[in-house]
Amino acid sequence: MAGTARTMRAAFVRRLGGTENIEVGHLPVPEIGPTDALVRMEASTVNHVDLFVRSGAYRTATPFPFVIGRDLVGTVEQAGPGVVGFVPGDRVWTNSLGHAGRQGAFAEYAVVAEDRLYPLPTGVAPSAAAPVLHAAATAYLGLVREAELQLGETVYVAGGGGAVGGAAIQLAKAMGARVLTSASAADAGWCRSLGADVTLDYREPGLAGRIAEAAPDGIDVWWDTSGHHDFETTAPLLRLGARAILMAGMDAAPVLPVGDLYTRDAKLLGFAISNASVTDLARAARVINGLLAAGRLVSRIGATFRLADAAQAHEAMATGGVRGRVLVLP
């Protein structure tokens, strides 16, 4: 019937809480503003922050019904009159939906402001790009904006088998650093394939001693992506002027050995990618696109779900039983 509003399939919640609140159904196709683009979703993924937002653990504006999901790769369907950088048919991506009042990516269509939209490099598949976008931008913010990593420095990444850990390994290597990482024995080969110079099994005893042997001059940038933050063990391993990055472990309350830190001129640098400015994200996007185009930024897919199975996708991430990224397709 003429005048009937277009609808789209989407995964959304009407209240915050568990995965039982996730519904899959039809919502109106959102209208774009003058500087927005309507993007047809071709691939998305699940990040830990998606679970925090959906559950209410991470407070942010969630206008109901609230479409979940953060990362999106797709094609521009429509561009507002003020959009100058994109036209219908362009392949694009974004990694900052589903937060601060912005509706999410788990829908057939999403509205994306032009200043949060980036071109997808030619030849890069949506299913290859989507799983690395959030993690790689996090790695950029931690290593470049916060730690100001320099050529030749030594980086230690705890949790190299995870999404952020794997991205941090790749980005640090691209910046000319020497990279040590800890991971499970099952993830050791994966970490080496990403470029890690030294891979240690965190389950084996004496991890601190093995780190000290591998980096006798100390660690310049320490990044515990697992969120355990054992500074009593960490601090003696740091080099003068070291930087420790904090971006995980919302409930962690570690002992802070102040003397061991300040006598090393060490800095603790905390950040959340959700607070990043559009300028920060755009700078990260340029680096991400360069690495994607060169085939130097990869991830592994642990499970693939369809949009209709959004709740199962969130459960898979929450239970931690998937080794690799959780990919979501329309």
Structural class by SSE content? alpha/beta
Low-confidence stretches: none
What portion of residues is helical? Answer: 25-40%
Largest sheet: 7 strands, mixed
- Kindly state the number of beta strands: 16
Question: Beta-strand percentage?
Answer: 25-35%
Q: Quick check: average pLDDT?
A: 96
Number of helices: 10
Write down the overall geometry.
globular
Order of helices and strands: EEEHEEEEEHHEHEHEHEHEHEHEHE
User: What is the first-to-last residue Cα distance?
Assistant: 26 Å
Radius of gyration: 20 Å
How is this structure best described in words?
The structure is a single chain. The chain is α/β, with parallel strands linked by helices. It is 26% helix and 27% strand. The chain has helices at residues 48-55, 126-129, 133-146, 163-174, 188-193, 207-214, 231-234, 258-262, 278-293, 310-319, and strands at 7-13, 23-28, 36-45, 66-67, 72-79, 91-94, 109-113, 118-119, 154-158, 178-183, 198-201, 219-224, 238-246, 267-270, 301-306, 325-329. Helix 3 crosses helix 4 and helix 3 (133-146) crosses helix 9. The model has no long low-confidence stretch (mean pLDDT 96).
